[in-house]
Amino acid sequence: MKEKLEKIVNILKDNGKTISTMESCTGGALANAITNVSGASNVLNFSAITYSNDFKIKMGVKSEVIDKYTVYSKETAREMARAISEFTSSNYGVGVTGKLGKKDPNNKCGNDNQVFVCIYNEGVYIDFDVFVDKDDRRDDKLEVLEVVVDRLLNYLQ
Length: 157
Known about the structure:
By secondary structure, the chain is α/β, with parallel strands linked by helices. The chain has one domain: Alpha-Beta Complex (Maf protein), CATH 3.90.950.20. The protein contains six helices and five strands. A five-stranded mixed β-sheet has the order 2-1-3-4-5. α1 packs parallel to α6 (137-156). The protein is globular. The two termini are 16 Å apart. The model has no long low-confidence stretch (mean pLDDT 93).
């Protein structure tokens, strides 16, 4: 995965583009992985870990979207990606929301093992979801991270 992350950073840097992330269940795993690459400071503008609905909304996610589709939805991932891109004036925004095998008493809807991801680029939304089934949250996060890195690299190439 290290080589893929280096390619992502280099593609962004070579094209004068930037990226920001708003992550929930992955706890900043994507932003952390990007910052492990030399030169990441040239391309990563900002990252937010927004576990609560309130902070998703404070960061620009429309509350109506969460109310209508729930926090665990493609639509909320889209809003997260768009909002972080706009908030930071980044070319790309990535939004990640979902559940990693744990029930959420504050948001009872949604599959307990489904993560929604969106890559946003100036009005274009690339949506996908990842189903996780590991016994350990760290392993689930790594699985999601690997899929996101693959998709992001494929989109950028």
